Amino acid sequence: MAGFRLIELAKPFLPLLPEVEVPYEKIGFDDKVVYTIIAALIYLFGQFPLAGVSKEASGVLDPLYFLRSVFAAEPKTLLEFGVFPVVSSALIMQVLAGLKLIKVNFKIRQDRELFQTCTKLFALLQYLVLANVFIFSGYYGTDLSVVQITALNVQLVVAGFFVTLLVEVIDKGYGFASGAMAITTVTISTNFVADVFGVGQFPVDNEGHTEPQGAFINLIQSLRASHKTWTGAIVGAFNRDYLPNLTTAFLVLALAASICFLTNFRLELPIRSTRTRGVNNVYPIRLFYVGSLSVLFAYVILFYIHVGAFVLVQLIAHNNPSSIIYKVVGGYASHNNLLYVPQFPLSLLTPPKSFVECITRQPLTPLFFTTFLVITGIWFAGLWQQISGSSARDISEQFKEQGITLTGRREQGVTKELDKIVPVAATTGAIVLGLLVACGELLGLKGKGASIIVGVSGGFALLELITAEYQQSGGQSALAQVLGAPSGGI
Amino acid sequence: MSTPTPPGGQRTLQKRRQAQSVKEKQQKQTPASTRQAGFGGSSNSVLKLYTDEANGLRVDPLVVLFLAVGFIFSVVALHVVAKVTGKLF
């Protein structure tokens, strides 16, 4: 056999999997806005509790709490796994294809189709596997009936299927740029607002007192509450660890601000036209060349490690401290009856719950976790800038087509010059992002730090494309006229 | 100073052969991603997954959106039914 190819596996499924049609004509700016917002809204509606979860609290708690917000996942809802299977399958398949471990010839149309179908199948398969891992671990309750298991399976997998399709609707050109990134950005920002200004009340003690979800609302409510002193209220607002507090809100804001600041760092290469004399411009190469993707990739790997550990410890060893697996991998300790906190050695790859705990109980975690983030980031950024079609060679080819060259270089020398800059920018950006994520997470943000970084830098990547689009076709936009924005393209 | 080598001869042939082989090598090198091949897809900082039209079951985007809403409502209905009858699960 001349060689078996993995993507051939998708062939039998090709006619079965639904495909969103590619738009016949170009979708207008307003329509894109509407499609993107509606798709994201439907995704947000998916944060609906699962039916069929048993009422009694089971001993198995959420082991992935610190990874969820990055992938816009909500525990015990239809979006139990969020966009993780979609993002991970895309990243992993693309990396494998880039390393030539999967043989795909992207020049052939049929290969591209098969590759895409394969990616989609892999995503659906992950939804199915993850759903069953969680069901049989007892996460939704022990002793589930067959009806419950089927119902949970159907809900989780069909929800995953619709998430894939929603992402596809945006990706196919009905919405802006990337579905997965638009959806995560919207969810992350929604969650942040809910964490600061959310008014939903939660019972906090046995006397029937409730506290709101939002940290800021909580401060005001506590100041007015009769059962608390002023100092107690303020300290509580900054300190509570069962619901979002003001300290995390400020830390997240600080991280978001620093990302906003760092996104603007770029190297501006002077370019000139080879056809006309005296036409000069600059070509920016930004520090975050691969954007948030390096962080996303590191979190995909983390997710796999933790799900693998969950399978070993919970499914096989039943979180029993005397089993060998528990001793080798590390088990889970429950916290507040809400979270499953991994123990040593698994805790090395788990961000601590608070900074104090990090110093006193997990002194090795900062070192290990940071190194992990930085190294995966470097590796991924180095590879991704090469394979994603924006490498030095690809850029210089674009230059040649458009009749541009770097000032002071011949056309042949452009690749060499860019090769000195692009990989360095990509890896340095990945290191900076990795360090920032580590900083946030080690201070005890429980995934909120990583998610705000992914959200803000992903948002900037999208914003860039959206503004470019607006300048091209925003002139006819009724939305822009209603909002009184200056018409683009002037 | 030695005289420059006259044009033509063995060397030119060799150079031509070399250029030819380099060209062939570049053509053989397959691109690593859809964007590198020039057909859209994920770029350096944006993850764009499903951009090619495959010969599958074609569906309209509006149908997808409506079905997704319908699915969520069916889960709502499942909750209601389970609550009312009290014995579904």
Give short descriptive properties of this protein.
heterodimer; A: 490 residues; mainly alpha; Preprotein translocase SecY subunit; 2 domains; two-stranded antiparallel ribbon; 17 helices; B: mainly alpha; 2 helices; 49% helix; rod-shaped
| Annotated CATH architecture of the largest domain in chain A | Orthogonal Bundle
Strand content of chain A: 5-15%
Question: Roughly how much helix do the residues of chain B carry, as a percent range?
Answer: 40-55%
- N-to-C series of helices and strands of chain B: HEH
Uncertain runs of chain A are: none
Q: Average pLDDT value of chain A?
A: 84
Compute the separation of the termini of chain A in Å.
59 Å
User: Helix tally of chain A?
Assistant: 17
Nearest-angstrom radius of gyration of chain A? 24 Å
Major beta sheet summary of chain A: 3 strands, antiparallel
Seen as an oligomer or otherwise, the chain set is: heterodimer
The strand line-up of the biggest sheet of chain A is 5-4-8
Which parts of chain B are unreliable, with pLDDT below 50 for 5 consecutive residues or more? none
Task: Classify the secondary structure makeup of chain B into a structural class.
Answer: mainly alpha
Which percent range describes the beta-strand content of chain B?
under 5%
**Total of DSSP H or I helical runs spanning 4+ residues of chain B:** 2
Most residues in contact: chain pair: A-B, 86 and 45 residues
Family (chain B): Belongs to the SEC61-beta family.
Keywords (chain B): Endoplasmic reticulum, Membrane, Protein transport, Translocation, Transmembrane, Transmembrane helix, Transport
Biased composition (Polar residues) (chain B): 28-44
Region (Disordered) (chain B): 1-44
